[in-house]
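Practice set, problem 2.
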Amino acid sequence: MMMNSQSNVELLIVDDEIGFADVLRKRMSRRGVDATPAASGSEAVRILREQAFDVAIVDLKLEGMDGIEILKVFKLMAPEMPVLMLTGHGCEESREICMRNGADGYLHKPIDFERLLIKTLHAGGRWVSNE
């Protein structure tokens, strides 16, 4: 398997843990993913109005708009954009709620970066199999 290098994946990261989002942005950038962080749902919605993204990663637990609300808004604004939900406090019920509302994936913190990268590239349409 390999990454198709024709163009970078545009990723929107929605997480109120600024340090985590910044580390994730830097690591993704080194792997050819252009990541834009947003610290809140309202900031994420504003950014999505101004720019198109190939995929979004949204933390489930946020102040103000929670991850489910953001997921619903994203699916109205950009129905074709895959949304991966990220949580440190997940349970089967929250996973089911996310999937029922259109999430394309559900991952637990702490994350396995390589797994998250593969899911991001796959969701963004840039993962190519050599098989």
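Problem 2, part (b): a different protein.
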Amino acid sequence: MKTLKHWKLQQQLAHHVELAVDGQHTLCLYVLEENLFRVLLKRRGELALDRTWSIAPQQDVPWEGRSRDDISGFTLPPGAWSSSRRP
């Protein structure tokens, strides 16, 4: 596994941040619940699989899976985002 070192803020919403990493990847951070976060890495800006079977709020994940971009059903509390540059 390669360490991802160089990033730049691409998009920031109340519950979601996207970082451009090493000029080709996208690192997405979601605040789904007060103590539940999603970290999603899109290699070269794309997902290897567009479905997930790992998490769904208040129910089992459907047999056919759930879209990885689907955040419905979560409370989405605002994150306390801040950015700072290291010297």
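Answer key, part (b): The mean pLDDT is 86. The chain has one domain: 7-67.
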